[in-house]
Amino acid sequence: MSNMTFNFFNQPLLLYQKIKQHYHENNSPPPNLLCKISRDSPLLRQPIDAKPIHISDFWLDRQRNVNIGREAFKYYDHQSFASKQNIDFHLSDGIATFDPRPLDEGLTNILSYILKVTQPNTPLKQAVSNADFVCFRGTLTALAVTPYSRDDTGFKFVITKFHGVFFIMQLDTDAILEERANESKRSKLLTYWGQKFETFIFAAKGETPDTKSPVSTWIETLGCFSMTLSPRTLERPLNVFYVAEIDGLDKSSMSLSCLFLTCIYFHFSWKIY
């Protein structure tokens, strides 16, 4: 491990800017970045032990400042629906005032979190729970499903090594950019429905869901996790530090996925307007 300490890594945008600059100057990803793997590869048939360990939580305010803890987290409002057999969710209401956050923040928020919680002169490896890789959960998902994907929009990653740790940032492919530029009204509506749905089922602690205020995604709640991947084909396990958005918490403060709750509600008779 490098004897350089975390104190030298004093600019949260440094890594992100370095990655973007390299990419744009060369008009292509750095050399030796991409690899090719067959669906028939024995690597894909190896069992992998992967047990995520929850480290901590943080949230981003409208100015995208990092705040440690769960102050802004919302909770699943089970009582509001416990006795209902028919649920009417007006998911199209308020779409004209939808206020989405930017999509191109890269790794900035992860880096800002690391800086926020780490004491000066702490080795970077220690700051990220001895991880080999740092990324968002969505990046892990994209990597994991890639060998099985067909006719999708592809993927593009930039990976840079800093003080012994590989930082992985996902970039938009040309296909994704084209798809976004030509996004239909129907597709935008479906995206909004997902965000509006959360306002019906989650609420601030001790409160009831607020379905009247404009829907905004600027305030973001996230969890930090470490995970060890132990495929038999590797000489040693790989440690990953990743950050994932948390839709909400249940009454025991366990994280919940809005997608999971959507499946639950389809067991009811419900309407979408």
**Largest sheet entry:** 7 strands, mixed
Structural class: alpha/beta
Q: How helix-rich are the residues, as a percent range?
A: 25-40%
- Give the helices and strands as they follow along the chain: HEEEEHHEHEEHHEEEEEHE
Number of strands: 13
- pLDDT average, as an integer? 80
Overall outline:
globular
Termini distance? Answer: 56 Å
Rg: 21 Å
Low-confidence stretches: 1-14, 29-34, 259-273
Enumerate the strands of the largest sheet in spatial order, edge to edge or round the barrel.
Answer: 2-1-9-10-5-7-6
In the residues, how many domains can be counted? 1
- Work out the helix count: 7
Percent in strands = 15-25%
Give the secondary structure arrangement, pairings included:
Layout: H1 14-26, E1 53-60, E2 66-68, E3 74-76, E4 86-89, H2 108-117, H3 124-127, E5 133-136, H4 137-145, E6 156-162, E7 165-171, H5 174-181, H6 185-201, E8 202-204, E9 220-229, E10 238-245, E11 248-249, E12 255-256, H7 258-265, E13 269-272
Parallel strand pairs: 4-13, 5-7, 5-10
Antiparallel strand pairs: 1-2, 1-9, 3-8, 6-7, 9-10, 11-12
What does this structure look like?
- Decapping enzyme for NAD-capped RNAs: specifically hydrolyzes the nicotinamide adenine dinucleotide (NAD) cap from a subset of RNAs by removing the entire NAD moiety from the 5'-end of an NAD-capped RNA.
- This protein is an alpha/beta fold and 273 residues long.
- It has one domain (11-27, 48-272).
- It is 25% helix and 24% strand.
- The protein contains 7 helices and 13 strands.
- The chain is globular.
- It starts with 13 loop residues before the first helix and ends with a strand.
- Mean pLDDT is 80; it is low at 1-14, 29-34 and 259-273.
